[in-house]
Amino acid sequence: MSPTSPAGSEESVQDVIVRLLDDDTKLDEVAKEVVLAALAEVGDGSRAHVDTNWSPTFLTSIKVSGFRGIGSTAKLDLHPAPGLTVVSGRNGSGKSSFAEALELALTGTSYRWKEKQALWAESWRNLHKPSPTTVRVGFTREGSGPIDVGVDWTDEAVLADCEIWTQVPSQERVPGVDSLGWAYPLDLCRPVLSYEELGQLFDGGPSKLYDALAKLLGLEVLAEVEKKLAADLKDAKSARDTADAERKQVLLALADSDDERAPGLVTRLNKRVRPVEEILAIVTGSGMSEQSVINALRALTQLEVVSVEDISTCATRLRTASVAAEAAGAGVIAAADKRVSVLKAALDFHDEAGDGDCPVCGVGQLDAAWAQSARSAIADDEAALAEYRSATIELKAARTAAAELSSRFRPAQAVSGVDLPAIEAFNTAVAAAGQLPVGDAALADHMESKLVDVVGAAELLRAQAEQQLAEREDAWAPLAAQVAAWVPLERKACELDGVLKATTAAKKWVTDNGTAFRNMRLIPIAERARHIWSLLRQESNVELGDITLAGTATKRRVVLGGSVDGKPTQALSVMSQGEQNAIALALFLPRATSGKSPFRFIVLDDPIQAMDPAKIDGFVRVMVEIAKTHQVVVFSHDDRLASVIRETGVDARLVEVVRSTESQVKTRTNMNPAKRLVNDALAVVRDKDVPDDVQRRVAPSLFRMALEEAAKQAYFARQSRAGCSRVESEDNWQSAKKTRNRLALAVLGDSKADLTDWVEAKPWRRRALNIGNAGIHGAGHVISKEDASDLDRAVNDLLALQ
Amino acid sequence: MSAVVLLAHAQQILAKPRGDGLAPRMAAFLARQALEQIIAVRCESLGAAVPWANARSRLIVLRALDTSDAADSASRAWSGLSSACHVHAFELQPSASEVRYLCGVVASLLPASP
Questions:
Q1: How is chain B split into domains, by residue range?
Q2: pTM above threshold 0.80
Q3: Counting CB atoms within 10 angstroms of each CB, which of A192, A383, A423, A720 has the fewest?
Q4: What does the pLDDT look like over B93-112, one tens digit per residue?
């Protein structure tokens, strides 16, 4: 498992989502963009945990005074490196007080306390020695070294009234534990698990388990994306909803209106795609048909009016022209015209023939005098003729003007549904005006009477039309305003309609793929849980199958598939309490030991209460597996765990907690892997039935193993306390192949350093090392009990170095 | 009887249902005998035959000279089977699956070629 990928999943949540998006051919690009945008906005889901410190951390010690079952100060030292430590003690020996103190220091609360607050509130202080009440927990963090977390209570304080602080040695105390940067991983990985908590894992309702697993899988990113899209969707929807609600109001108002524009608007407003421009045109009146009432009324208000002055001017002109024409002498005009022709012909003749008798009458003389008078007569006649002609033209023009003026009025069209009493009078007047009388004087009179009538009627009609129009507009204006107010809302909603569609698709995609995605992420955890269960189950006939996250929102739950003797079933329903505890452990160990967690320790408080012996064996194997990478601390009141470890030679430390009177609690290391090897060596030495040659080969091997084991513990503990990288320590250890080099690492921190001084300082060290260094053919002499005690002392010396 | 045969008998007993419920203890007994033989053979092949030594010494020989996996498995199987073979106060008799599992551990210690 790589430390950067939570729960063993290779890809980050983002990468998985992006890949799923790329693979999806059905989702359109816009919707994909929406998902990516939401993802980018949500970020990597670690915004809340930027303060998180992910450095691997081990526990070094827990020191408690006056708290719970512990009176005077009791200290539990822990090997701050991977390995299994079992802390056992009788019920009430105070071992759980250590676990609770740790939990309290880390989280400010304890599971037990939370569940049984009333009981705890009274019994949290030690009865025998209630003061001082303090908790000190030592951690060591890779890269920075030791950190202490303390909890102090004043004498009168209640449990919740504690002062929690953190301190890096030789620096000032910092209040609270926030500076550790563990708030998020504590919530995520919970390195401290109690029996109660395991037992109640399934009692908290299916959603609780779901949430606990979801967090670990990094699913909160997905949840946040979903939440963000839902919010966006709500925004987009709210624009659409506002527009539609407003539209409904408009439609309601329009239904009550008897305005002729209303039906057209209603039709358009009810269309699936509202033609906003058309609607706007109707509202402003620019898009009306010619026959419409409003336009008709509007036309009537703009009825063309001839002024009375024009009429009278026109009539006067006609009269004047008529009189002038008459005066020009209508009677003489024709003769004068002919006489001019005759005289012109006679003058032509005279010009040709000269003076002589008149060829017409034969009496008169055509001479110069005649010609003279004839010419003047012609001029006079022509002048009279011109005057007459112009008078006639003027009369004609005047008549035309009069006719034109009279014919300018057209009857008005009645407007359906509108009461315009003046229209009839107007039309009658127009009709009368159109009946032109014969004779100029009569026409002039006609104009002055009938046309002026029309003007009067028109004015009346116009006023009435204006009034009608105003009435209609007054009723319409608020409706128009309402529609106008709806238009921008609708436009905005239309703009967002695209977004709405894409967001809907995006959210649906996220929801649809969420289940698959979640379960994809769950696979590694489920596998580990199944593996742990397979070790734990032993006697159980319940086989754990698929673990899946199902449902969303309030229906979210974890489905534990399984089978009983091959028959498929829901695993939980067929499990006993002990099995439920075991499965809870199986589900939560992967969480607590996630590679993502900074806590390289897990603390289990009495996890095996309800387990039968076979499961304890399995449990030990699970712990041993985890102990390869983690510091595992198991508190147990049950000697079965310790005895399984003692008897099966499991690599573990056994610490016994003993409580004597007055709550005096002592911790004592009962077994240490190095010490066990010492004991083994002693056992072989003591067994007289072991042939000497075998003894001489076996014992040195045990000597070497014991010395190296002790050196290893010392070296790793010291490295860990100094905040050194675990990988580096591991490498140094592996590259130091010889026992002497390894001892040099432990004693001097350098495998190549000269160990002579240390070895020679005490005689037993040299003797034990010499036996350990005996080659493959064994020691030169039979190993004695004294040799074994040399080894014991040397091992103690080494262990004391940590 | 060789270790293989003993182990086969043990597994046979476990497979057959018995009315008296004694199968696990009987199987454990046979499996422990098989394990004793296997340990003896392993010690011998390591050049450290300890025919008269007690079980603890033999297991320690394995711890000192054999692979740590073999030593662990032998210890675990020995401890489990021994407790299954005796009647302990306040302890239930071993379950069939537990013994079956221990038989598996013993089988893993059988020499590769018989």
A1: 3-108
A2: no
A3: A383
A4: 777 778 888 898 899 998 86
